Each structure stands twice: as structure tokens, then as C-alpha cells.
């Protein structure tokens, strides 16, 4: 095979040999550009776009965290004792607590039968207005339609 290629090369005129060498050089340059350089440039451009998106996301998250910390610290400062807060706020929603167990920075609450929408309104007020966190919530179907039992609600400050 090699000998056939050499014989073919020797049978070509000098002009044809030069033309084939130039074509081979152009082909090699084309392969380098299209196969290596262009994909690398595209990868670099994609990476720069990804870095820009990540920087924008980081900036947005930092702003959001700052806002949440500012809102949470003012709400927590005003909330006082967790047991007192729960007792004050539950009356507006007609919630009867069957058991309440305070511990360090949390409060475990059991509720026998409560309307689901009232429970959600109460929890929304506790989290958004008073800055507490719902650490755990176990809910099961109540006796009537639209009512639930809360076997465990753990609220943290």
C-alpha cells in the first residue's frame, strides 16, 4: 500500500505534487480550526456565560438573604416567648390546642380537630408575621370534611 502511494506520487507532475501539498496543508489547518480551536472557543464562551449567570444568581441570593434576615430579625425580636405567641395568635383562628410541650427554642403542639384553612392561615401568620419556623408538621384527616388533626407541630424560633 505504501509502495503504491509512493509510485502514484512519483507519477504525478511537479505542479500536481505542489497542488496536493497545498491542499493537504489547507486540510490540516481546516481540521485544526474546526476540530480543536472552534470547539475550544465555544466552550470558553459557554463557560463565561455560565460564570456570568452564577454571579447574577449569587448577587440575587445575597440580596434576598439580606432582606429575609432584616425581616426575620425584626419579626423575631417582637415575638417574645414562643408559648405566649402561640396562645395569643391561636384565638383569632379558633384553634384549640390539646397539648403543648415547650423545649429549648421550640414548641411541640398537638391539635385535635381544626379546619384546614384556619390551620393554614394560623401557620402563615406565625411564619410570615412573627418569624417562626415550622420544623415539623404531621397532619391526618379529621372527623369531618375539611378538618384535620395535627399530631405533631414543632415550631422553632
UniProtKB/TrEMBL annotation:
It comes from the Bacteria. Inner membrane component of the type II secretion system required for the energy-dependent secretion of extracellular factors such as proteases and toxins from the periplasm. It comes from Pseudoalteromonas phenolica. The chain crosses the membrane at residues 20-37. It holds the Pfam family T2SSM. This is Type II secretion system protein M. SUPFAM superfamilies: General secretion pathway protein M, EpsM (SSF103054). GO terms for cellular component: plasma membrane; type II protein secretion system complex.
Amino acid at each position: 500500500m505504501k509502495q503504491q502511494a509512493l509510485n502514484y506520487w512519483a507519477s504525478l507532475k511537479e505542479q500536481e505534487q505542489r497542488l496536493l501539498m497545498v491542499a493537504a496543508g489547507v486540510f490540516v489547518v481546516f481540521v485544526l480550526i474546526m476540530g480543536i480551536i472552534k470547539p475550544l472557543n465555544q466552550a470558553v464562551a459557554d463557560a463565561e456565560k455560565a460564570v456570568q449567570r452564577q454571579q447574577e444568581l449569587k448577587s440575587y441570593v445575597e440580596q434576598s438573604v439580606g432582606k429575609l434576615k432584616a425581616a426575620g430579625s425584626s419579626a423575631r425580636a417582637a415575638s417574645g416567648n414562643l408559648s405566649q405567641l402561640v396562645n395569643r395568635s391561636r384565638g383569632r383562628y379558633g384553634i384549640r390546642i390539646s397539648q403543648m410541650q415547650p423545649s429549648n427554642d421550640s414548641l411541640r403542639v398537638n391539635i385535635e380537630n381544626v379546619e384546614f384553612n384556619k390551620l393554614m392561615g394560623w401557620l402563615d401568620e406565625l411564619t410570615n408575621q412573627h418569624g417562626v419556623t415550622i420544623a415539623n408538621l404531621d397532619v391526618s384527616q379529621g372527623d369531618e370534611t375539611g378538618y384535620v388533626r395535627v399530631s405533631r407541630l414543632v415550631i422553632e424560633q
